[in-house]
Amino acid sequence: MPLIHIIGNLAFILVACSFMVKDIFLLRFLSITASFCSIIYSTNVAATPLWVPICWNLFFISLNFYHITKIIYGNRKIKLNNIELELYQMSFSQLNLIEFSKLIRMGEWREADADTILINEEQVMDNLFMIYNGRVEILVKNKKIAELKDGQFIGEMSFLTNQPASATVKTVLPTKYIIWKQKDLKELVSRNPAIVFSLQAAMGAQMSLAIKDRNLV
Hints:
The protein is α+β, with helices and mostly antiparallel strands and 217 residues long. It folds into two domains: 3-77; 82-216, Jelly Rolls, CATH 2.60.120.10. It has helices at 3-18, 24-44, 51-77, 82-91, 97-106, 156-161, 182-191, 193-216, and strands at 108-112, 117-119, 127-133, 136-140, 143-148, 153-154, 168-171, 175-181. A four-stranded antiparallel beta sheet has the order 1-8-3-6. The protein has a four-stranded antiparallel beta sheet with strand order 2-7-4-5. A hairpin with a 2-residue loop joins strand 4 and strand 5.
């Protein structure tokens, strides 16, 4: 296959790859690279350059560079305290700082002493929790089935399924956590797809680990 056709196919492969990535910077980098490949192909595949695709791809490149610059500039304006920065690095590094700032500002920080019940089994859930520092135990019919620690969600199944809590959650140690109203959080993620991907990835990893741990018991 001639090199020019390889470049042309590469442009479409990169576009397809951009649909599968979650990181917004990688997505835009792939899109820009695909546009450059398309320009090279459109310039050399025919006797005269194909100006319509060339011009459109130049426009797409400019648009992607604009959004990358906007994100970088916006990130520089975001100021996180030490606790917020640690939580970001622990559980939300897939988000850019602008998106994380929206998420963290919506939450409310709380603290609980040891042996405090945060959720009762069969309780209708209005909130989603994430542990920043501490440890909780998960009880089903007063039987301990798991423990959760720093960076893990509490109430993620209820958030995803809109069902009541399937277990009681009680602190083992003094615990600092952040809490989001489910209604407000769902409105936020409906406007910010990247936050959806980050939450689903974190929750999915946590549920997979829980299933693995139960199978080992």
